[in-house]
Write a structure and sequence with these properties.
The chain is mainly α. The chain is built from five helices and two strands; from the N terminus they run ββααααα. A two-stranded antiparallel sheet has the order 1-2. InterPro entries: Myb_DNA-bind_4 (IPR044822).
């Protein structure tokens, strides 16, 4: 499990661990994911190349919930969560691997269920019994 997602939810302050950056508690990570999952946020992030303003909006919304995080901290945490989710999807789809224990998997699956960069569209070719190659 990723250390930055294993802290007690009641922890109100943040701390820095050498080499790990700023630690996020479960409650603030959950709040971030909830904001990220809002339709207008998902749409804006998927449609804009330069999305710094969207991360500012996310930071502002997170601050309204009582968690004081900068725009860059939100952006970094979201990139980390996306990477961990993508790794979990790969692990879950690899034969012989156990299922991922990523604690935010279900929440992230709701955000990325239509993202083809994580869940590529699968196509299959089929021929009906009457089709022949000429």
């Amino acid at each position: 499990m990723d250390n930055d997602d294993s802290l007690d939810e009641s922890q109100g302050s943040t701390r820095t661990v050498k080499g790990k950056g700023i630690i996020w508690g479960n409650a603030e990570t959950s709040a971030l994911i909830k904001i990220w999952g809002e339709a207008e946020i998902k749409y804006a992030l998927s449609s804009l190349k330069r999305n710094y303003e969207i991360f500012e909006m996310i930071s502002t919304e997170l601050n309204k919930t009582g968690f004081n995080r900068s725009t860059e901290e939100c952006r970094t945490k979201m990139k980390s969560l996306r990477k961990l989710y993508k790794q979990a999807v790969t692990q879950n789809n690899t034969s012989g691997s156990g299922l991922s224990k990523f604690i935010w998997f279900d929440e992230m699956a709701q955000i990325f269920r239509t993202d083809t960069s994580i869940h590529p569209l699968r196509t299959t070719e089929s021929k009906s019994a009457g089709d022949t190659d000429k």
